[in-house]
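Q: Predict the assembly, please.
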Amino acid sequence: MSAYPTPKPPSRIADMFQSRNAMGLMFMLPAAVFLICFLTYPLGLGVWLGFTDAKIGRDGVFIGLENYRYLWDDPVFWTSVFNTVVYTFVASVLKFALGLWLAMILNEQLPFKSFFRAIVLLPWVVPTVLSALAFWWIFDAQFSIISWSLMQIGWIDGPINFLGDPTNARISVIAANVWRGIPFVAISLLAGLQTISPSLQEAASLDGATSWQRFRLVTLPMLSPIIAVVMTFSVLFTFTDFQLIYVLTKGGPVNATHLMATLSFQRGIPGGQLGEGAAIAVAMIPFLLAAILFSFFGLQRRKWQQGGQD
Amino acid sequence: MAMTAQNDPTLNDDAEGMSYLNRLPRRIVTVYLPLAVFVFVLIFPFYWMAITAVKPNHQLTNYEQYSPFWVVEPTLDHIKYLLFETSYPGWLWNTMLVAFGSTVLSLAASVFAAYAIERVRFTGSRPAGLLIFLAYLVPPSILFIPLAVIVFQFGIYDTKLALIFTYPTFLIPFCTWLLMGYFRSIPFELEESALVDGATRWQILIKVILPLAVPGLISAGIFAFTLSWNEFIYALTFIQSSENKTIPVGVLTELVRGDVFEWGALMAGALFGSLPVVILYSFFVDSYVSSMTGAVKE
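A: Predicted assembly structure:
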């Protein structure tokens, strides 16, 4: 910025700074108005609503920590916290492992590589609700195609109750979430893999590194900054997931798949308890902050890793 | 990224890497077989959607006489039902309108914001850039309840405007972030020479920067359009009447009735709701991928 040469005489520099700030402000205005009206303000309002007993059609009054105290004693809320953490953890680990694997496969010399890349990204492009509907049909209690195939092979005797049994339902929603999440992780990591020069791998191999060592000591460290960012996004979106659960189970059976977001919706909108719903949403913020801090330090690390390259 | 790796002559020499060390049988086990499994699993739900959409009802659940993986006499009944006996065409139109409106709004706001942060460099432009990034990380699932209250206060509850105005909350941060990266790659010298020639900032933006940033605008636009097409929680919360619903909400709330599921019509609805974004995507795969990975890498 300091290297920016000014073609005008020095007396007008102050002038330019004036107009520069004014112009910056003017250009920022449309975005700022939108974000303040529909993002910052609701964020604050949400925190405020969490301290009130607002219901649909009635402004609430301040009731302090009443909502939080109620939630603290509410076993359903704790179930949803537990579910959210398990769902996020298991799904993210699987998405990372499978996504990295897929990225490494796509990084090989392949015929029709760009075709495969395009195909792989499809689950991510299609609206989640619509692909979740397909999963709903695939997970049907009577006519599931998975049950039918397994019965044909002879591995099981009767159809699997995918969404009716608590454990099965948890596994099923995680599977559907992983299915949708793999493409994003794989394609992002593929972009990272393609920036790693093959000569590094060759050098390591000449030094006698096995393929596992090459992966662990060359590929992973080179990829770690992008992994940090990709996984932060993945964790963030998994943690706040709503659509998939809402389509597949609506939180059931017996709240076994209720996530914090779905519980917040159920209590807040159909239940009409805006204050309580907002309190549940606010309770998600500490987790999200942790994820954002993680991303921040991931980005920081990138700076010293790449040194003066950029 | 793929393009730069291929065009760079120094990389091209050893682009094959060490793959010559792998023999074919080994490659089949380590590369082609897993790839086939991945592609099968990722594609199967779409196949299942498509095949169900054209299956006559009597074949749909009769696995004894008809193989579930194929269809004997494909029918268009489900699609006809969808198009002529439900509000589906209206939802399709709403979704398009909302996605288009919010994309245009967000792009316009983002171009100015990104240019200001990246090139006007006003006091506080760095923190502004960081705030935009943080705004991108605020998920809709913690905003929908207060936003519902605000939308109600503004008197736009249950209108398409409610969606057109609220979608930019996640589109503007994304587009701005993406366009900042594009603007950064445009050389300063171009702007300087335009300044020397007496152009104003406005003229520079319109006549120098924007034409050069067209690929970035396309990427951001496609991506924003897809994001608003796929949005669900706001549309579910803010829209009540059937004639204002978007496809994801309409299909889920009105085509699913009681215990007897019309799987054929449901899958046809899902298929037709996905097609527009898939077609758009297939034309712009590269800008799509670059915007996705670009947003992650910046």
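Residues 10-41 of chain A form one domain. Chain A touches chain B through 104 residues (CB under 8 Å).
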